[in-house]
Amino acid sequence: MPDPSDTKSSAAAPHDDHGGFGKYYAVFAALCVLTTCSFMTYFDFWEQNFSDQVGWAFMMAVSCTKASLVILFFMHLKYEANWKYVLTVPAAMMSIFLMLMLVPDVGMRRQKYSEQRKVRAAVVEEAGNHEQPHDHDGK
Question: What does the pLDDT look like over 35-70, one tens digit per residue?
Fold first, then answer.
């Protein structure tokens, strides 16, 4: 019969290798630093020295890193057996495939517009350009 005063029960034994609270505090601190880094892209210094595409790529890298930290440590996926790769690798490959197939399609969709579609398409206004809207009939 197990001793009730024993602090390590059989249910807690598989979780002993998780590293304690220090590791979770370190991950939390890393998440805070990464969030600060992504927030810095909204300052004038970033906008003056880097293009929008660099900012988007940086934000995606920071977001993927933060998601990986949450998945690995807070969802305990780091401590699971190797079966996790059977689930995550095909999903990652499919997401990369979809991105590679859909991003060019979305990015170049305006190049194949018909003349009628071009006339009726929404126009993106530049910041500070506050012209009065008009109908497509020239009114």
Answer: 999 898 888 888 889 988 898 889 999 999 999 888
**CA angle at 22 for the pair 16 and 26, rounded to the nearest 5°:** 125
Q: How far apart are CA 70 and CA 74, in angstroms?
A: 5
Number of alpha carbons in the 13 Å side-chain half-sphere of residue 119 = 7
Q: Is this prediction's pTM over 0.70?
A: no
State the Cα–Cα distance between residues 6 and 33, nearest whole angstrom.
Answer: 39
CA distances, 81 to each of 15, 42, 75, 93, 101 (Å): 13, 40, 14, 20, 32
Measured CA to CA, the distance from residue 71 to residue 45 in angstroms comes to: 32
CA–CA gap between residue 77 and residue 67 (Å, rounded): 12
